[in-house]
Amino acid sequence: MALIPLSLFLGGSVTAIPVVTGIAEGVSHQKKQNEEAANESRMIKFNILISCDSKDELAEEVDNGIAVLRHDKVWIVPREDRDGKPFPVPPIPNMQPPLHAFAGFYIQYPDDDRVPPERGLVSTISDDPPMLNWIYVDKSTYELRYGNRTASIEHIVGEWDWTEDEMRVMLEGWEGFVAVDESSAMSEEEWEQTPWGKEGLRWAIYYDRDDNGLKGRRGKRNVFEIVLHRRLQSKEDQLKQLEEAERKMQVKSRGDLKTQFTAPAAERERASRK
C-alpha cells in the first residue's frame, strides 16, 4: 500500500487510491476520489463519545463514556474532561500501556475488488510511535475491531460516514451500534482470567447489522443501544501531534498502514545548505 502523508491528520489530500477497471467505473471512482479529497473535514481527527438512553441501571456504566482501543477491540470506558478535552478513565490504576482513546478520520479503503470503493475509518492506536489501524466489524461476531489491511480486508470495512449534521458516526447508512457486556456470559472467576477482565474492561462496541439486538450472537450478554458522537480535535491539538510526529522520521505503522513523516521545515533548510 502507498504511504499515507501525515498531512491527512490536518485535512490533507488523499493520494495513491487504486483505480478500478472499466471506463464507467473508473470515472465514477475518480469523481468520488476528487470529492473525498476536496472534503477536508473528513480528514479532521475526532474522538468518539458514547451516549445511552436506556433507563437500566447498568447503562450508567456506558452513558457518557469514551471509545478506547485495547486488545484489538473497541471498548467503552468512563471519561473525564480536563481543560475541555475528554480523557478515558482507566478501570484499574497505573494501567500499562495506558488506554488509548479512539482518534481517527475517514479515508477510502484500499481494495480493488470493492466496487464501488468504500470509505473506511482509521484511528491511531499508539501515540509513541504514532501508528494507524483500520476500524472494522468482524463479519461473524459483529464486534468492532482494529487491525491492519490484512486483518481487516475480509470483514466489514465500510461504508463509514457521519450523520447529516456531521455529529454522529454511521456505518452502512445507519447508526446500528450497541454496547455489549462481555463479562455477563461467564462466571466472575472465568472473566477475571481473560485479558479484558484482568484490566477491568467490560463494555465492547458491536454493530447490530441485522437490527435484531444481535439475536443469535449475543448469548446471555447484556446489550444496550448506543450512539457514537464525533468530538472533533482542535487544530491546536492536531498541530501539536503533527510537530511531535515530524521529529520521528519514517516511523512505520503496524501492518500495512504506514504514515510518512518528513523533517520539520527548519531541519530541511539546514540540510539543503550542506
Poorly predicted sequence stretches spanning 5 or more consecutive residues: 1-27, 248-255, 258-274
Helix content: 10-25%
Total DSSP E strands: 17
Tally of domains: 1
Order of SSEs: EHEEEEEEEEEHEEEHHEEEHEH
| Gross geometry | globular
User: Beta-sheet strand percentage?
Assistant: 25-35%
Biggest pleated sheet: 9 strands, antiparallel
Assembly state here? Answer: single chain
Radius of gyration: 19 Å
Mean pLDDT: 80
User: Number of helix segments?
Assistant: 6
How does the helix and strand content classify structurally?
alpha+beta
Q: State the end-to-end CA separation.
A: 33 Å
What does this entry look like structurally?
With 274 residues, this protein is an alpha+beta fold. It has one domain (4-273). Helices cover 18% and strands 30% of the residues. It is built from six helices and 17 strands. The chain has helices spanning 23-38, 149-152, 188-192, 195-198, 235-246, 265-273; strands at residues 4-5, 46-51, 65-70, 73-82, 85-88, 100-101, 104-108, 119-127, 130-137, 144-147, 160-162, 169-171, 177-181, 203-207, 223-225, 227-232, 259-260. Strands 2, 3, 4, 5, 6, 13, 14, 15 and 16 form a nine-stranded antiparallel β-sheet that branches. The longest helix has 16 residues, at 23-38. Mean pLDDT is 80; it is low at 1-27, 248-255 and 258-274. Keywords: Signal. Residues 246-274 are annotated as: Disordered. Residues 1-16 form the signal peptide. Residues 246-257 have a biased composition (Basic and acidic residues).
